[in-house]
Design a protein that fits this description.
There is one protein chain. Helix 2 packs across helix 4. The chain has 108 residues and is α+β, with helices and mostly antiparallel strands. It has two domains: 66 residues, Winged helix-like DNA-binding domain superfamily/Winged helix DNA-binding domain (Arc Repressor Mutant, subunit A, Orthogonal Bundle), CATH 1.10.10.10; 33 residues. A three-stranded antiparallel beta sheet has the order 1-3-2.
Length: 108
């Protein structure tokens, strides 16, 4: 069964690191695998496939090389989810600030 949840896709630290690498520059598959000496090449390929299946990486061929590019559009869902909580906490902190101003302005 293929994962459909973008949160599960990026939950894996290796996948996050691959995305991070590819935001800096496009890389051939072999160069990506070389960055993970403790992980087998087939395992790195599986991570790249999951990222590709979910639109976080695009692969194009140039001669014999397969170059990977980061595509960060699908991360917008995560950004929107985090943003709602940022907004929530900002409102809570604003209310706390108002409360503290009222409390300490009465004592002064």
């Amino acid at each position: 069964m293929r994962e459909k949840d973008i949160f599960r896709v990026i939950a894996d630290p290796t996948r996050r690191e691959i995305i991070s690498l590819l935001t800096q520059e496009a890389m051939p598959m072999n160069a990506i695998a070389e960055r993970f000496p403790d992980i087998s090449r087939p395992a790195v390929s599986k991570h790249v496939k999951v990222l590709t299946d979910h639109g976080l990486i695009m692969i194009h061929k140039d001669g014999r090389e397969r170059f990977c590019h980061a595509q960060l559009g699908p991360l917008k869902e995560i950004s929107e989810w985090v943003n709602q909580y940022e907004q929530f906490w900002n409102e809570k902190l604003d209310h706390l600030g108002d409360f503290l101003k009222q409390k300490y302005s009465k004592k002064g």
